[in-house]
Design brief:
The structure is a homodimer. By secondary structure, chain A is α+β, with helices and mostly antiparallel strands. Chain A folds into 2 domains: 281 residues, Zn peptidases (Aminopeptidase, 3-Layer(aba) Sandwich); 123 residues, Alpha-Beta Plaits, CATH 3.30.70. In chain A, 35% of the residues lie in helices and 21% in strands. The first copy, chain A, is built from 15 helices and 18 strands. In chain A, a hairpin with a 6-residue loop joins strand 1 and strand 2. In chain A, helix 1 packs across helix 4 and helix 4 packs across helix 15. Chain A is globular, with a radius of gyration of 23 Å. At the A-B interface, strand 9, strand 10, helix 7, helix 8 and helix 11 of A face strand 9, strand 10, helix 7, helix 8 and helix 11 of B.
């Protein structure tokens, strides 16, 4: 790659941060209906930026939900085509009082930029936009054909994406998909991720009585839905952290011995990990290490609870209803629909007849695992090495990017997970942040990635 | 009693309702700091009304919390002195969207007045004020000496009351306490209540990690505090509804056989009760009837739950913290402090070391039981018969009025529970209401009560 592209990138670091701040200022929270206009505004901002950096055929494509942003540059005759996928929507920000600086007023402290969406995923999208800009401004062309495809519903389960990809199969056709929406293994340890967990997300609603009741006058005479919810949840895992849903583990692909050996060699400091999280003790499924639990084993999690009186002080009430948000993370070869059905059957079995239980399937996503000796993954490894000055490790990730399975299934192409976040960057939590040196190295690595992919003729 | 007092009462029914509406319009919610000024305004309104109806020595007495309203009329030479106790504060109104009419804009529908505080306790206080007014306006005097003592912290555990009664022991000295803050047995079945349950109320806070975590990246590696909360709660009761806290039942006074026989003869329709509550099925401690469970057996209840994401949609988060409000209703001879200590020890035993658990004692109250053949209780029975046209049944109540134990202990006097609410009047729930015919009969019964008590020289 010509030096002047790296020079250009290094010269414009400050400008990149200022531009990124504008992007992060848009509260594109897809989960909250009141932010609908912001979500659209964010799509428009993304499109304008693509236009500005020199991409072609820029457009918003409407879906039944939030618009998709599309652009391409297809002038690299004979070179492969990469499809870059990202999402411009972000998570909600509650509890907002736990943010040190306002979530949509990006603030740089100690080389990190704090804002909702900084790591997940606007910062990582922007890294690619700046790498594309550097090529187009300095070389006048890209070394690989690029299609950009940025959606606005990832944080609410990408519910219209599957259909969109099917309906735009020809427009999205490519040789490889590149996604930057995951953390690297650790600070200073860049990585290429070759496996993701899937997801099955539910809301449980329990109704005991028509209205809230005085717990003095009625306590002892009726089932308490908040207590019943506790009873139901408690039956989901045993003391050893193993999920008790009948059939839950049937399709779990066992960890290969080589994989376990390889992961044991990774520089993972369990003590520091625990301390960083502030947990009194780590806890997970008996018989597995922490990395194995997070990367290669399914789990059952409670994401939210709500019932009765939750204000300051005391209110002696038997709540009429109790609600939980729960989700299961899945690993190959579990199927989210099948697991959802097993869960429904199990809840039906364990729930008492004293209450009404309603289960709502919120969303699901398939787990994914790549063949990591394919040539695109290897090209990505070389680009990371040039951007970060060291060769990457190969790991899996505990999170879910359901679209990866869709791309495999519908477009028939592999994905490369080219993430430059860090595991402690509070994606989905207060004080989300992105390390700016990783961002700047990432822009260089992305510029090299395009060149490496362009060589694979 | 002279007919002209009953005539006066019957003549002023409409005015009573209009005046009661003004009283109910004051949102005197003691649990919510932002309603502090309303609470004080309500105390002042009560004092002005006492002044207006002709009571003497009317004053607000400051406490470290909300003021107490005091008044007396001590001109019945040779007659006993009754201390009337009530509370002018009310419960919070959430969920406010479930109210058919606004909670502080009292509305009459089908002979019932709907408003927060209508049954608990402003309506029942007002019944006495109107009976006192009728005597003073028509006879120019009361047949019994009356001290009025109305507090403003009952709904937050009467936390300064105990000390107040001790410090004002001489001022409050009386022969009998009259309290109207409980329901009658059923519509058309007036009753005198001779037993109440006690209370031990806690908040449990569980912390897993420093911040909320992405449930993909960390799910499986750390204990989930919302799940642990479910596990802890589930261990509080067995499948038969029996509380599992070690030592919990040690001091429970067994039900007497006569009492069980007597209650079996009460016109209690379990089918209608279940239907009115809208419960799929009744549920409680094995081996006891519904009335026994509510009146004479202790219980463990979850009053509130809060953790993680509770909005619309899905958020894949492991909450950093989870909170529950819980309370235990106690029966003679359980002691709230002793039970609280047993509970703390049990939680400590069952909670895993993977989380930090904080228990906060919110408030407590002793259970109470009267000797129901004492002459004050019998006098109250005669007054009820004259107001309602039928003799009352004698029952216990599942709720708690901790001050009853305080009066017994500090003033050494028995209480008479002279309640005219109904069990389905939604005290502590949306759409609280009071039956106006019970209110009007109650004013007449109270007027007779003063006469009956005055005869006990």
């Amino acid at each position: 790659m010509t030096n002047n592209i790296v020079d250009f990138i290094n010269l414009h670091r400050d400008r990149y941060v200022e531009e990124l701040k504008s992007y992060l200022a848009i509260p594109s929270i897809s989960a909250l209906p009141q932010h609908q206009p912001d979500v659209r505004r964010c799509a428009e901002w993304t499109a304008q930026e693509l236009e500005r950096i020199g991409m072609q055929n820029v457009r918003l494509i409407e879906t039944p939900g939030n618009p998709v942003v599309y652009a391409d540059w297809l002038g690299a005759a004979g070179a492969p085509t990469m499809l870059f996928y990202g999402h411009y929507d972000v998570q909600p920000v509650d509890p907002v009082d736990q943010w040190t600086s306002p979530p949509f007023d990006a603030t740089v402290r100690d080389g990190e930029i704090y804002a909702r969406g900084s790591a997940d995923d606007k910062g990582q999208i922007f890294m690619h936009l700046k790498a594309i800009e550097a090529w187009l401004k300095q070389a006048g062309s890209l070394p690989v054909n690029i299609k950009v495809f940025i959606e606005g519903e990832e944080e609410v389960g990408s519910k219209h994406l599957d259909q969109f990809v099917r309906e735009h199969k020809d427009q999205l056709a490519a040789d490889v998909v590149v996604i930057s929406d995951s953390p690297m293994f650790d600070r200073g340890i860049p990585s290429i991720c070759y496996g993701l967990r899937g997801l099955a997300y539910f809301q449980i609603d329990i109704r005991g009585t028509k209205t809230d009741l005085h717990s003095g006058s009625f306590g002892g005479a009726v089932a308490n839905p908040a207590f019943v919810l506790g009873q139901i949840l408690a039956q989901m895992k045993d003391k050893g952290g193993r999920v008790k849903i009948a059939g839950f583990y049937d399709d779990v692909r066992p960890l290969r011995e080589e994989e376990r050996e390889q992961w044991k060699r990774l520089p993972f400091n369990e003590k520091r990990y625990r301390k960083d999280l502030g947990a009194p003790k780590l806890f997970g499924e008996r018989g597995y290490t922490t990395l194995e639990r997070v990367w290669a084993r399914p789990t059952f999690e409670v994401n939210g609870l709500l019932a009765g009186f939750t204000g300051e002080g005391a209110k002696t009430v038997i709540p009429a209803t109790a609600m939980a948000k729960i989700s299961m993370r899945l690993v190959p070869d579990q199927d989210p629909d099948k697991v959802a059905t097993l869960f429904e059957a199990y809840v039906k079995k364990v729930a008492p007849k004293t209450v009404e239980v309603t289960l709502t399937r919120m969303h699901g996503g398939k787990p994914w695992m790549a063949d990591f000796d394919n040539r695109y993954v290897q090209a990505a490894g070389r680009a990371i090495e040039q951007g970060f000055g060291k060769s990457p490790v190969f790991n899996r990730e505990g999170g879910s990017i359901p679209v990866v399975s869709t791309f495999q299934e519908v477009l028939g192409v592999p994905s490369v997970l080219f993430g430059i976040g860090l595991p402690d960057e509070n994606a989905h939590a207060p004080n989300e942040k992105l390390d700016l040196s990783n961002f700047h190295n990432g822009v260089i690595a992305a510029a090299f990635l395009y060149e490496e992919l362009g060589k694979l003729r």
